[in-house]
C-alpha cells in the first residue's frame, strides 16, 4: 500500500491500515511539521473512530481545555457591540449533560478542539512510532502511472535530490487540494460556485478591542471578516477575502475601526470553491481527504477526511487479507462521496449565513434585525455518523429507521454503557463483530461459519438490559468502522449470501 500525503487523512489511513496489520509506505513532501494555524474541531463521531486507534486520549491531552466553551460573536464592526453571541457547550458541560443518559443517544466521545499544528505533530509521531508504517518525510510525489494491477509513483527526495520509483498494488492520494495524484488519475472536480480567493493571516494586535471571552476560543464574524482567537493573548487568525496586495494592509482595511496588526506572523492563500471530486477512484488509485473534497479552512473540521480514511482503510485491509471482494472497494465511493456532497451543502449554508450577515451589516441593518436574522439560522448539530443509505455492501432491509440512533443497516448503532461501566463500542473488534442478544447465543454458530471462510468475525454475546431495550434486533453485525452491516432476530437458514454481500463478493 502506498499513501501520498501525511496530513490528517493520510495519517489516519496509514494508522487504520496498521490497526488491521497491513504495512504501508507514506510519502510526505514536508520535511518537518507543517504550520497549521487553524483550530480543528473533531466531532464526536471522529473521536469515536479515532478512539479505535488509541488516539482519542492523546488528542484530548494535546487539545483545548475541556472546560472551554466556544463563542461565535456576530458583530457589524469592531467598534460596535455584538448583534448576537452564540455559545457552544464545552466538552465537560456535555459530559455532565449526558452523565445519566444511557439510551443510545449519547455519543461514546464528545467533540474536541485542537490546534492544527498540535494535531499534525501527534499524528506524525504516531506514524513514526508504528512498525508497520514506512514514513518518508521530504519525499514529493511528482507523478503517478496506473496499470491494471498496480500503480507506480515517482518521488523526489528533498534531502539529496534523488528520484525514486515506488510500485504498489493500491495507491491512495491524500495530498490535499492541489492533489498530484488526482491530476495524474484524470479525475475532475465538481464545484458549487466560482471560487473566491482568501488569505489566512496569522497576526498579533495589541489594539484589537474585542478579545475572546473567558478561557474558551472565540470566532468573530465581522462583516465579511472571520477572526479566530488563539490561546496567546492578542494573537489571532483572520480569514480575509484578498486576492492580492500587501496582507497587512488588506487586514487593516478589513478590521477597520483604526485597528492595525502590530505583527504579521504568517500568511497562506486558499479558495472557497467547495469542490468534490467527480470520482473517488481510478482503478487501483483512490482519493481521500482534501484530495477528494476541497472545503473551506474556516470550517475547522476534518471530520469528512477522518471518515474517508477509516472507511477506505478497513476495506483495503480486507482485500489485502483476502476476505474482501472487489465490490467492497467499489463501495468506498458509493458510501463516502454522498457524505461529502451533504457535508458541502451544510458548509455552504454556514458560509452563506456569514456572507448575508456581512451584506446586511454593510447595508446598515439595525442590531435587532441582525439578531433576529441570526436566531432563525439552524444551529450546528453533532454528527453521529449518518447512515450509508444505498451502500452496495450493506444487507438491505425494508422500511426506514425508527428513531435515532438505531441498528437499522447502514447506520452507526447506539452507543451504550454496559452494566460493568464499559462502553459497548470498546468491545467491538478490528474485524466484524456479531452482537448477540439471543437467549441461546445463536450467533456463535454464525461466527464459526464466517471464520471457516477466513472472515474475521467475533461473537459478542450480551445480556445487558440497556442493549436489549435499544438495539431493536437480537443479532446485529457491526463492521470495523462501527456501521451496521446486517441484523435480524433469528439466525438465517442460509448465511452464505449475507456474508458474500457484505464482503463485496
UniProtKB/TrEMBL annotation:
PANTHER family: FAD-BINDING DOMAIN-CONTAINING PROTEIN-RELATED, TRK SYSTEM POTASSIUM UPTAKE PROTEIN. It comes from the Bacteria. Keywords: FAD, Flavoprotein. Residues 2-340 form the FAD-binding domain. The keyword Flavoprotein applies. This is FAD-dependent oxidoreductase.
Amino acid at each position: 500500500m502506498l499513501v501520498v500525503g501525511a496530513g490528517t487523512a493520510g495519517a489516519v489511513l496509514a494508522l487504520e491500515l496498521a490497526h488491521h496489520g497491513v504495512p504501508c509506505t507514506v510519502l510526505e513532501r514536508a520535511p518537518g511539521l507543517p504550520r497549521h494555524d487553524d483550530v480543528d474541531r473533531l466531532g464526536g463521531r471522529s473521536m469515536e473512530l479515532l478512539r479505535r486507534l488509541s488516539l482519542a486520549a492523546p488528542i484530548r491531552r494535546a487539545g483545548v481545555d475541556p472546560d472551554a466553551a466556544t463563542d461565535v460573536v456576530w458583530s457589524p464592526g469592531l467598534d460596535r457591540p455584538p448583534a448576537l453571541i452564540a455559545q457552544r457547550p464545552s466538552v465537560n458541560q456535555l459530559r455532565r449533560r449526558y452523565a445519566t443518559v444511557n439510551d443510545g443517544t449519547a455519543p461514546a466521545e464528545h467533540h474536541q478542539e485542537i490546534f492544527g499544528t498540535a494535531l499534525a505533530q501527534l499524528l506524525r509521531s504516531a506514524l513514526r512510532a508504528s512498525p508497520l508504517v514506512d514514513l518518508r518525510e521530504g519525499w514529493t510525489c511528482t507523478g503517478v502511472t496506473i496499470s491494471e494491477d498496480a500503480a507506480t509513483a515517482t518521488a523526489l527526495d528533498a534531502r539529496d535530490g534523488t528520484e525514486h520509483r515506488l510500485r504498489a498494488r493500491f495507491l491512495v492520494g491524500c495530498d490535499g487540494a492541489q492533489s498530484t495524484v488526482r491530476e495524474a488519475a484524470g479525475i475532475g472536480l465538481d464545484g458549487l460556485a466560482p471560487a473566491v480567493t482568501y488569505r489566512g493571516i496569522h497576526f498579533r494586535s495589541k489594539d484589537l478591542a474585542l478579545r475572546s471571552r473567558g478561557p474558551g476560543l472565540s470566532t468573530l464574524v465581522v462583516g465579511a471578516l472571520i477572526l479566530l482567537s488563539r490561546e496567546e493573548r492578542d494573537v489571532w487568525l483572520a480569514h480575509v477575502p484578498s486576492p492580492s496586495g500587501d496582507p497587512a494592509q488588506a487586514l487593516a482595511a478589513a478590521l477597520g475601526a483604526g485597528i492595525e496588526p502590530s505583527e504579521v506572523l504568517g500568511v497562506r492563500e486558499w479558495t472557497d470553491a467547495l469542490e468534490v471530486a467527480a470520482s473517488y477512484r481510478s482503478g487501483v488509485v483512490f482519493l481521500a481527504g482534501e484530495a477528494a473534497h476541497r472545503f473551506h479552512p474556516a470550517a475547522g473540521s476534518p471530520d469528512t477526511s477522518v471518515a474517508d480514511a477509516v472507511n477506505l482503510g478497513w476495506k483495503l485491509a480486507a482485500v489485502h487479507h483476502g476476505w474482501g471482494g472487489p465490490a467492497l472497494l467499489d463501495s468506498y465511493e458509493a458510501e463516502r462521496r454522498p457524505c461529502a456532497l451533504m457535508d458541502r451543502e451544510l458548509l455552504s449554508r454556514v458560509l452563506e449565513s456569514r456572507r448575508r450577515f456581512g451584506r446586511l451589516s454593510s447595508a446598515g441593518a439595525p442590531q435587532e434585525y441582525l439578531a433576529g436574522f441570526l436566531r432563525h439560522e439552524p444551529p450546528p448539530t453533532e454528527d453521529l455518523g449518518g447512515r450509508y443509505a444505498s451502500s452496495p455492501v450493506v444487507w438491505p432491509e425494508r422500511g426506514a429507521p425508527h428513531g435515532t440512533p438505531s441498528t437499522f443497516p447502514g447506520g452507526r448503532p447506539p452507543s451504550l454503557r454496559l452494566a460493568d461501566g464499559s462502553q459497548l463500542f470498546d468491545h467491538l473488534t478490528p474485524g466484524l463483530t456479531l452482537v448477540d442478544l439471543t437467549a441461546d447465543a445463536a450467533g456463535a454458530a454464525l461466527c464459526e461459519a464466517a471464520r471457516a471462510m477466513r472472515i474475521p468475525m467475533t461473537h459478542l454475546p450480551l445480556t445487558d438490559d440497556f442493549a436489549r431495550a435499544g438495539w431493536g434486533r437480537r443479532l446485529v453485525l457491526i463492521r470495523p468502522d462501527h456501521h451496521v452491516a446486517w441484523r435480524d432476530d433469528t439466525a438465517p437458514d442460509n448465511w452464505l449470501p449475507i456474508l458474500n454481500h457484505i464482503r463485496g463478493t
